[in-house]
Amino acid sequence: MRVWFLSLLLCPMAFAGDWVVPWITHNGQFKSDIIWTNPTAEALVLNLVAKRNGGETFEAQVTLDPLAQRVAAVNELFPQLEEGAGFALYMNSESDALLGSYMVVGTQSASGSSPAQGNIQLQSTAGRHLIFPFLPDPASQISAPVVVNLGTDTANLVMTAYQDSAILGQREHTLAVGEPFAAVSSDLFPDLSGPIYLHVQADQPLAGTSFAFNELLEPSVSEALVVAQGPEELVDQVAGSVTTVTMDSDLRIDGFTMGPDGMMYAAEGWAGNRVFRISLEGVVETYASGLRGPIDMAFDRFGNMIVTETVGSLARVAPDGTVERLAFILSGPNGVAVGPDGNYYVTYYGVNGSGRQIDRVTPDGEVSTFAEGGSIRTPIGIAFDDAGMMYSTNFEDGVVNKIDSNGQVSVLATIPNTLLGYVRVVGAYLYISSHTHNVLYRVHKETGAWEIVAGTGAANDSDGQLLQASFAGTWGLAVSEDNRDIYVTAYRDNVASASAIVRHVRLD
């Protein structure tokens, strides 16, 4: 569906006013009214210039009585202006007290009179950086940003689209003095899928607005935000690749970790009773059995494996595979980590997602609450950095928590609309899996800035470079001692069956 509302305007600037509306419509699909309010006790005279594609310029003058409001249709203001492409409207007055807006009406919507309203903009508030905070998914709505050059020279525009904490695409465009530029978002970025926000930078002052239309051609309007600078430069994308580890057995895997022997260890999950040892070449053997729904595991300084059991217990597995019940804990435990103090720390998804705490268990089996409430909600992953700071991930709301040695909790980052899984510390970053988005995230430990480090987002299991490879969900994480290799558990073709696969993420 193509909306006639949007046409590219290329016309020289003939009149510079105090106010500007970057785009006014006047065609068979959309009608526009201009509204002015004079809040003063004296009459105001307004000089108007409409600029249109092809160099057409139309002038008009309006007088506003004291304390009066006037609503004028486009064809009333400019009777010689025939229906066609939109235009930019410039306004000038001897008084700076003028207030104004404009109304766009979708005449071909279901009601035939669907309205949207925007405000006139002072040219003095123009800037060299514009942000369009939300341009919706083209699968459901058509959107279009509009930019007008209010400078004294040709503007060199750089338009950068951001999506999921990454740059989706970038376009350049030159814009003559006084010219407005309008384009459908999906024309600017042909690979666009999902919502974006847009930064427009130029070497001349700009003003802008954006429009969106649903399938009923009902319009909405939003002014662009003038900001001092654009989004911070993204962290350099990590170089590396993703390959699939070919295993000699089909496994069901929940928690996943790297052992002190450089082998991978996998818990069978709530319906199982085993922990497996997997070589880097994919050879599988049973390391321990007789467990009661093993969920996650971690190794202590003595080489013992500490295992959370879904029934509500913590088991300790000696290096020879002998299993002992160390402590009884709450039902629904999940992640486990060994702290710098030698104690064991346990997160709880909880019964029916009720988990709100992290417990501390001593090597002697004494259990106490270490942190609870606040931003802790269904915590899954848990990890410590070299400084002793704890990090935990919420399954429920995508929150990454930072927890100090006193159990004080603060939110480090929020990754929206995702169900987070396990977390591992790799240098200055946290690497985090996701149950929902088929990608691997990383979060800076200090700033909380997050990005997708691997995966296209499509549910598949193709190998390749980090951002070209695909995952069918990501869950368990095991990291090599040198932090160069991350092993990720996933499913094949997004089928959550009993068979999991292991993907090798190599960081170059």
Automatic annotation (TrEMBL):
Designated name of the protein: SMP-30/gluconolactonase/LRE family protein
UniProtKB keywords: Signal
SUPFAM superfamilies: NHL repeat
Annotated transmembrane regions: none
Signal peptide, first to last residue: 1-16
InterPro entries: 6-blade_b-propeller_TolB-like, SMP-30/CGR1_Lactonase
Top-level taxon: Bacteria
